[in-house]
Design brief:
CATH superfamily of the largest domain in chain B: MetI-like
Largest sheet of chain A: 6 strands, mixed
Structural class of chain A: alpha/beta
Strand order of the largest sheet of chain A: 6-7-8-3-9-10
Helix content of chain B: over 70%
Distance between the termini of chain A: 46 Å
Low-confidence stretches of chain A: 255-273
Structural class of chain B: mainly alpha
Order of helices and strands of chain B: HHHHHHHHHH
Mean pLDDT of chain B: 85
CATH topology of one domain in chain A: Rossmann fold
CATH architecture of the largest domain in chain B: Orthogonal Bundle
CATH superfamily of one domain in chain A: P-loop containing nucleotide triphosphate hydrolases
Number of domains of chain B: 2
Distance between the termini of chain B: 13 Å
Shape of chain B: flat
Helix content of chain A: 25-40%
Largest sheet of chain B: none
CATH class of the largest domain in chain B: Mainly Alpha
Mean pLDDT of chain A: 86
Low-confidence stretches of chain B: 1-11, 275-279
Strand content of chain A: 15-25%
Strand content of chain B: under 5%
Number of helices of chain B: 10
Number of strands of chain B: 0
Oligomer: heterodimer
Chain lengths: ~270, ~280
């Protein structure tokens, strides 16, 4: 179990007086893709292209203007424990310890105490925080905090794991370490993952497929399979070739919007004049 | 400032700090010196200035008064009376304040309905209501309690409201994503995350109530209480009892605020690393 299907997804923001969007904003009109069971799919794109919006819609934290999202065939109508979300800003509960943070979703599911303890112990181990289970998040480094975030999402054993630029707030060394850790955890758990990032190398390193979101309103302009064997070496020639392909596509994608082909997305394109 | 977040990988750093007793001893040293100096000057002034001991009694008179009221039992009755009033008011007031404040922080409609009255009432010092409560309740316990409850509940309400309102939106999103909603959102997320602010509201409320209760006991004749004792000691010109009571008020107020309220705050604020100034 664990298929995420996004069908003709549409998100518009209505015009609002006093804000910049006097005539409304069309983020995307028609985004369709499927993340198969056990597949790791990344969505990349320039900032402001709506990739995080896609994830929020899939998470049920935002409502689409049209289209639908299905998790294992069930339509998404709001947040639910069939999806585990990892936030860019960690969003850990500071009054709970590492173990309690990880147990948060299990408590919502009313998993009985003994079983909950066992699951938490397993997850704490999986994300490499065994000695830190009783720490409060403020004593952890950024990388460790996001391990807790990942653990909290994995603990509920979700059909789909949704990750919103989870390593975006980390320094480059920690970021690579976290990518390695996630790659290992993914091989172990084989979760269905939708991963949002703006980092091409990160996408190539982790994904089975990379979707490129571009344009305004944006759409999926490229669906690139990454059929490299795992574990992947970031310095392999085949890896770097994939990176180059994506980089060219990313540049090309964003230049379609600008009139001159240079300026990256001048202002929001409007619905009508 | 919170530096501990960065030192996560070396929790053993704590071991390098000097042992607690040594820091305490050092603190006591710095606290004691000025006290001793003040006492010495007090005694010299009382003995040598020629001012009547009725106005400025020497230390032994104050000490004797203290011992006398303690053995006689009035000291304990006064302390008990004042603190009982305070606890009743703080208990009732903080329940009212926390509930309404939390509802104001969480629901737009509650906020709209209460924010005007709250700001208006906050502008009226509790003590200004004495004439009114005296008319309503007479010179009774209730005349005091109603004002204390008024002051405590408003103070707690304002702090709880702002605490719940200033919750990081990403925490609410995360809580929703992980299955919290309605009542469980309130108990599992809103309340704990507003806790530092709520507790500092309790602290503030206590120190306001502490001031008010002393005044109240002077105005309203009750059987026992520190303010009541001050008032009657003045009536009978027992200056050393006035001083002894002032000393008691200072020491108990300080101890309570340090030992009970401070530690409650430290437990949440320090442990969770919620950055909020303690002073």
């Amino acid at each position: 179990m664990g298929e995420l299907r996004v069908e003709r997804l549409k998100k518009h923001y209505p015009a609002r007086r006093g804000s910049g969007h006097r005539t409304g904003l069309r983020v995307f009109d028609d985004v369709t893709f499927t993340v198969g069971e056990g597949e790791f799919v990344s969505v990349i794109g320039a900032s402001g292209c709506g990739k995080t919006t896609v994830l929020n819609l899939a998470a049920g934290l935002d409502t689409p203007s049209g289209g639908s999202i299905f998790v294992d065939g069930r339509a998404v109508t709001g947040p639910g424990l069939d999806r585990g979300i990892v936030f860019q800003e960690f969003a850990l509960f500071p009054w709970l310890t590492v173990a309690e943070n990880i147990a948060f979703g299990l408590k919502s599911m009313r998993v009985p105490g003994e079983q909950r303890k066992r699951t938490v112990a397993h997850i704490v181990d999986l994300v490499g925080l065994k000695q830190f289970a009783d720490y409060y998040p403020n004593r952890l480094s950024g990388g460790m905090r996001q391990r807790v975030g990942l653990g909290r999402a994995l603990a509920i054993n979700p059909s789909v794991l949704l990750m919103d630029e989870p390593f975006g707030a980390l320094d480059s060394v920690t970021r690579e370490a976290m990518q390695n850790a996630l790659a290992e955890i993914w091989i172990e758990t084989r979760k269905t993952v939708l991963f949002i990032t703006h980092d091409i190398r990160e996408a190539v390193f982790l994904s089975d497929r990379v979707l490129l979101l571009a344009g305004r309103p944006s759409q999926i302009v490229l669906d690139l399979p990454i059929d490299l064997p795992r574990p992947r070496g970031r310095h392999d020639a085949s890896f770097q070739e994939k990176e180059r392909n994506l980089e060219v596509a990313l540049r090309g994608g964003s230049s379609q919007t600008g009139d001159s082909g240079e300026a990256p997305a001048p202002r929001e394109k409007t619905v009508s004049h | 400032m919170n530096q501990s977040g960065y030192m996560a990988k070396s929790p053993t750093d704590d071991d390098l700090e000097p042992p607690a007793w040594r820091r305490l001893a050092k603190d006591a040293y710095y606290v004691l010196i000025p006290i001793v100096v003040v006492l010495v000057f007090w005694q010299m002034f009382a003995k040598m200035s020629g001012i009547s001991p009725v106005l400025f009694p020497p230390l032994e008179n104050i000490w004797n008064a203290l011992v006398h009221t303690a053995t006689e039992g009035t000291l304990w009755a006064d302390l008990g009376g004042t603190f009982l009033r305070l606890f009743k008011a703080v208990a009732a007031g903080s329940v009212i304040g926390t509930i309404i404040g939390a509802l104001m922080g969480y629901f737009r409609d509650w906020e709209r309905a209460f924010v005007g009255p709250l700001n208006f009432l906050l502008a009226i010092p509790g003590t200004a209501l004495f004439p009114l409560t005296m008319i309503w309740f007479g010179l009774t316990e209730m005349a005091i309690l109603s004002i204390l409850i008024y002051e405590v509940s408003l103070t707690v309400m304002a702090n709880t409201w702002s605490g719940v309102k200033s919750i990081d939106v990403s925490l609410i999103r995360a809580a929703r994503a992980f299955g919290a909603n309605g009542a469980s959102m309130f108990w599992r997320v809103l309340l704990p995350s507003a806790m530092p602010s709520i507790i500092s509201g309790y602290r503030l409320a206590f120190s306001r109530a502490w001031r008010i209760v002393i005044i109240a006991e002077m105005l309203v004749s009750v059987s026992a209480g520190l303010g009541y004792r001050l008032f009657w000691a003045r009536e009978f010109f027992q200056t050393e009892i006035v001083y002894a009571t002032l000393l008691t008020i200072g020491i108990t107020g300080l101890l309570f605020e340090r030992l009970v309220l401070r530690s409650a705050e430290a437990m949440t604020v320090n442990r969770w690393g919620t950055v909020r100034e303690l002073e």
